[in-house]
Amino acid sequence: MGHKVNPYGLRLGVIYPWKSNWYAGRDYADALHEDIWIRKHIRSRLARAGISSIDIERKGDQIWVFIRTARPGIVIGRKGAEVDRIRKDVERVTKKRVDVKVEDMNSAASQLRPETDATLLGQGVAEQLAGRVSFRRAMRRAVQTAMRSGALGVRVQCGGRLGGTEMSRREWYREGRVPLHTLRARIDFGTAEAKTTFGLIGVKVWVYHGDEIPAAEKETELARARALARVTTGGAASTGALITDEAEAEAVSAEEPAASPEESASADEPTGAEPADTEAPADTEAPSAAEVPADTEAPAAAEVPAEGGEA
Q1: How far is the C-alpha of 207 from the C-alpha of 118, rounded, in Å?
Q2: How far apart are CA 214 and CA 255, in angstroms?
Q3: What is the pLDDT of residues 206-259, one digit of tens each?
Q4: Backbone angles phi, psi at 233, to 5 degrees
């Protein structure tokens, strides 16, 4: 699967967003062909500008084109002449308002550096092959450059008439880990073509930048961590819906502090009760109703003497 599926498309919607953000109805095909033409036109016009990616956004009759490049000076041109020329070309074809924005990959705010970008590494290898550099030397140099810049794994592959041989073949170099089947692995993938005197040589580059937890799984982990924190601090938190492992649930319940006998006794006593040492002794019990004789009745009330009589 790693040789047939684009690593970006395999992870699309899981950890990677779309490179074209817009919604269309009946004119979906027209917008799709416009996006393809925009990317092809910019890359052909600025072939040596070090363009990593081109993102497109649409809203109504407005189009935003974001060009991420390692050489912003070539893209912008003198006093912005090159950007204006590209904007007018796109407006002429799409018949819509266009705004072109250039993002510098060398700035501190950029997530990917030019030395670890797969597209730029592939373009560098293709330029060296077109300049008659040995393909093995160019591939090893690209791998070493990416690993020194902080990549966790790099793989570079070349295919075609390598070295001018009669039969085409493929050769590749790899260093570090490149997990192509792990969906949470951030794999940067780029391709390039080198036009040599003995034919076309294709270059593919995979760069592994570490794992990225999906948003839904990250929220679940945060909720579980908050619940465990409340349990360890003595709070009344219900973690049954968050902990699915029975062994882990037993471990969490064992970590709960047990109540001392004094605390349990104080919890059982009502608010206005007397202290325990003032209670009556256990051996002095009140006589039950069965032990009281039936003929012993309470004395009747004294009769009130009549007026003028004797007491």
Answers
A1: 6
A2: 30
A3: 999 999 887 777 788 888 888 888 876 655 545 445 555 666 666 666 665 555
A4: -90, 5
| Below-70 pLDDT ranges, the chain | 1-3, 108-110, 232-311
Residues 6 or more apart whose Cβ sits within 8 Å of residue 58: 20, 21, 22, 24, 31, 64
Q: How many CA atoms lie within 13 A of 129 on its CB side?
A: 31
- Cα distances from 60 to residues 24, 57, 83, 93, 96, in angstroms, run 10, 10, 22, 16, 9
Return the bridge partners of 205, or none. Answer: 156, 190
Q: Which two tokens stand for residue 116?
A: 């670890």
CA 17 – CA 14 distance, rounded (Å): 8
Burial 171-188 (b: 16+ CB within 10 A, else e): eeeebeebebeeeebbbb
CA dist list (Å): 291 to 34, 214, 294, 300: 106, 78, 9, 22
Q: 126-143 as b/e, with b when 16 or more CB fall inside 10 Å?
A: bbbbeeeeebeebbebbb
